[in-house]
Structures are given as structure tokens and as C-alpha cells.
Design brief:
CATH architecture of the largest domain: Up-down Bundle
Radius of gyration: 24 Å
Shape: globular
Distance between the termini: 28 Å
Helix content: over 70%
Strand order of the largest sheet: 1-2
CATH superfamily of the largest domain: MFS general substrate transporter like domains
Order of helices and strands: HHHHHHHHHHHHHHEEHEHHE
CATH class of the largest domain: Mainly Alpha
Largest sheet: 2 strands, antiparallel
Strand content: under 5%
Number of strands: 4
Number of domains: 2
Length: about 450
């Protein structure tokens, strides 16, 4: 027996998973619309700012280049901070960049604003996945990933068409000003409801940033995850960015009908992405990935070989490609998130975001260098691009099979054993208590071996 007060564990604040997911999806929605809406605004930007196609291409790619560089920097430092403040700083920086885009009076200022937006917005996706990895257990992570990726579908269905309409009616600045205004209340709500999520700070926080970067890129399982991400993004972005011009030039789809592709494809993805997440949790992420990916490869070949067809056929095939592409990304991202230890998850996913953006840029650049236009305006060599995209997609099946979940830490301290015992005796309907850290003197006694340690 010892004198002194008895340690009474404080109950750990309960995390409302649905609210967290809603906040993350809202942030994803605004960042995706910001990234996508610049492309259909190209003709208006060229007229208003006097841009050449080359300058407009640099405005689009500046976001990707900035996102890739920022992702590498984030991989070194992001795990030194709690998830909530890091997420809020990134989102605040993104909103400042978006507002700067809306206020930009010239090509040079717009280019700088896009670079700033990409530097913050490009890391947001990886940070959102880190939050999901910390909040949601493995058995529900696929479903949460699917729900988060529904933000992409909603951006396609509503965000981009509405943004384009605002741009045509009120000027190209309007979509960015509206997005900045929409994101401000989301930022305040996120600051109130997101949990701090700082458990990872007690594991490896003293590492030098360069050591952390080396650890991120030297780990064999991390390299397999990065390789998988490269195949996912390279295959997609070799085909998808050129769908609209191909449909107009080769498949006979009127330009005014193109929004139907985004609306139908986004609507199907809005249903299909959460369904893929539920199936991944129920039947296994790798199994679902292996079923959906071959279908994506087949659709890549079909859509890049479309002749002149009725509108319904063209829209249906492209929409099927969009939903199948999202359906393979959901289990893939869940597997990638699970492949890293929690203490390295933020930095890893920041690096993964950099790899993702760079691979997307490489895919689009490869396709752009391969495709040509005939004298009549038709796009040539798109079938070749489709075959290469399909081949890369099929190669991802082998890489996904080599990816392994992160090994759990089997060593259990006495404090962790007490916490496990408390959880085992708690009523199923009661909140799970969290054991407060033991006093330093107690931990020193345990470290000296005077208290038992068990191995699981």
C-alpha cells in the first residue's frame, strides 16, 4: 500500500466520427473545386488576361508543382505537430491563396496565387487521410475513405458546373471569391469540433526533419505504397485530362453537352465511392481493388477508342470510367493509409501527396507529348495512350498485393495493461476511459524493471 491520492483516470473525450468526416469532406470539396474549376475557365482567362495557351498551361501546372514540393517539406515536419492545428494552418493558407486568386489583377499575380494555393491545398488531402487514420479504426477506415472521396463526386456534380456558371456570368474571379467565403465558416467549425489528435507526438517527435524524411522514403513498405500511388495517378491522368477534347473532336459530342459527363459521372461516383468503401471493409480492401481495377483498365481502352456514337453512349462510358476509377482509389487509399505506423502517418501522407501530384503531372505531360491533332482537328494517338494507361493500371494489381499493413507495436507497458483492463471491464454503452500518463517517478520505476512488462 502507498500513501497519497489514488490515480483516477479521466474519461477520454468522445469523438463524433460523423462530424469529423463531414468537416473533412467539406474541406476536400472546396479544395477540389478550386483545383478543377480553373481548367474550364481557360478560354475566359485567355481573353481577359491575354494569355497564350502556354501561359495558361503554366497556371494549371503551377498548383501541381507547388503541391509536390510542399508535400515533401510536410513529410519532414508535419508529424511534429498535433493534427488539428496543422490541418487548420493548411486550410487557412489555402483560403488565403484562393482569395488571392479571386483578387489577382494580372497573369503574374494569378500565377503566384495559384502557387500559394497549391502549396497549402496540395497537402490538405494527405492531412485529411492522416486524420482518418487516427480517428477511424482499421475495420471502418475503408468506409470513411469512401465517404471522404465522395467530395470529389460532389465537386464534379455541383461544384465545377456552379463555379463555371459563376465565372461566365460574373467574371472568372467570382468562383474563387465564393470558395474563399464558403471556406471561412468551415475553418471556424473545424477549429471547434476537430479533436486535437496528438498521440503520435510521443513517438519519435525528437527526430531531425531530414532523418524523418529519410525514414519515410527508405522504408520498403513506404516505397511500395508510393509505387502503387504512381501507377494509380499516372494511368488516370494520362487519359482523363483529354477526355473532353476527344469527345468533342472525335466522338461527335457537342461542347455544350460536356457538363452532362461531369454530372452523371459525379452522381454515380457519389453512390459508388461509399459503396466501394463498405465493400472494402466487408470483403477486404485488396480483393475489392483487384475486382475493380481490371474494369477500369478495360474502360480506359474503350473510351480512348470511341468512334462517333450517340450522346448517351459517350456519356455513359465516360461516367462508368469515372466511377470505376473512384472505386479502385477508395480501397487503394485505405490500404496505403494502413501501411504506415501512426507516428509517421502525417509525414508519410504528406510525402504521398507529393508523389500523387508529381505522378499526375507526369501522366498528363506524357499524354500531351504523345497526342497530336490532324488537319481536320481530330485527336490522334489517343488509343495508344489508353493502352499504356490500362497497362499501368494492371501493373498496380501486382504492387497492391505486395503492400503490407504496418506492424503493430506488440510491447505493452504496465500502464497500457491497466488501460486495457479498464476497457475490458467497462460497459459496452459507456465511453471508454483513457488512462492519464503516470507520474515521472512511476515511469522511472517501470523503466528500471521493478514493474512487470508483458508482451502480446
Amino acid at each position: 500500500m502507498t500513501d497519497g491520492p489514488l490515480l483516477v483516470p479521466k474519461p477520454k473525450p468522445r469523438v463524433n466520427e460523423r462530424v469529423v468526416l463531414l468537416i473533412l469532406a467539406s474541406v476536400q470539396f472546396t479544395s477540389i473545386v478550386d483545383f478543377m474549376v480553373i481548367m474550364p475557365l481557360g478560354p475566359q482567362l485567355e481573353r481577359t488576361l491575354g494569355l497564350t495557351p502556354a501561359r495558361f498551361g503554366l497556371i494549371v501546372s503551377s498548383y501541381t508543382f507547388a503541391a509536390g514540393g510542399a508535400g515533401l517539406v510536410a513529410s519532414m515536419v508535419v508529424d511534429r505537430f498535433a493534427r488539428r492545428p496543422a490541418f487548420l494552418v493548411l486550410y487557412a493558407g489555402f483560403l488565403v491563396g484562393t482569395l488571392a486568386c479571386g483578387l489577382a489583377p494580372s497573369y503574374a499575380t494569378l500565377l503566384a496565387a495559384r502557387f500559394l494555393t497549391g502549396a497549402f491545398g496540395g497537402v490538405l488531402g494527405g492531412m485529411a487521410m492522416a486524420v482518418i487514420g487516427d480517428v477511424f479504426p482499421e475495420e471502418r477506415r475503408g468506409r470513411a475513405t469512401g465517404a471522404l472521396m465522395s467530395a470529389f463526386a460532389l465537386a464534379s456534380v455541383a461544384g465545377v458546373p456552379v463555379g463555371l456558371t459563376l465565372g461566365l456570368r460574373y467574371g472568372w474571379n467570382a468562383p474563387f471569391l465564393v470558395l474563399a467565403a464558403l471556406g471561412l465558416p468551415i475553418l471556424f467549425v473545424a477549429a471547434r469540433v476537430l479533436p486535437r489528435l496528438d498521440d503520435h507526438l510521443h513517438q519519435g517527435a525528437s527526430e531531425h526533419p531530414l532523418e524523418r524524411l529519410w525514414a519515410t522514403f527508405a522504408h520498403p513498405n513506404h516505397l511500395r505504397a508510393f509505387a502503387l500511388m504512381v501507377t494509380l495517378m499516372f494511368g488516370s491522368f494520362a487519359v482523363v485530362p483529354f477526355l473532353s477534347p476527344y469527345l468533342v473532336s472525335n466522338a461527335g459530342v457537342a461542347e455544350s453537352r460536356l457538363p452532362l459527363v461531369y454530372i452523371l459521372g459525379g452522381a454515380l461516383t457519389l453512390v459508388g465511392a461509399p459503396l466501394a468503401g463498405r465493400m472494402a471493409d466487408r470483403f477486404g480492401k485488396l480483393r475489392v481493388f483487384r475486382i475493380v481495377s481490371p474494369a477500369t483498365a478495360v474502360l480506359m481502352v474503350v473510351v480512348t477508342n470511341l468512334p462517333r456514337v450517340p450522346l448517351a453512349v459517350a456519356v455513359g462510358v465516360v461516367a462508368a470510367l469515372m466511377v470505376s476509377n473512384a472505386g479502385r482509389m477508395v480501397p487503394a487509399m485505405a490500404m496505403i493509409t494502413s501501411s504506415v505506423e501512426p507516428r509517421r502517418r502525417g509525414g508519410f501522407l504528406g510525402a504521398n501527396s507529393a508523389v500523387q501530384h508529381i505522378a499526375a503531372g507526369l501522366g498528363a505531360s506524357f499524354a500531351g507529348l504523345t497526342l497530336t491533332k490532324s488537319a481536320g482537328g481530330a485527336i490522334e494517338h489517343y488509343p495508344r495512350v489508353g493502352l499504356i494507361g490500362a497497362g499501368v493500371t494492371l501493373f498496380s494489381l501486382w504492387l497492391a498485393g505486395r503492400l503490407r499493413p504496418a506492424e503493430p507495436d506488440h510491447e505493452t507497458t504496465f500502464a497500457a495493461s491497466v488501460a486495457a483492463a479498464a476497457e475490458a471491464t467497462a460497459d459496452a454503452d459507456e465511453p471508454r476511459p483513457a488512462i492519464e500518463p503516470f507520474p515521472r517517478e512511476f515511469l522511472e520505476i517501470e523503466a528500471e524493471g521493478n514493474l512487470p512488462r508483458s508482451t502480446g
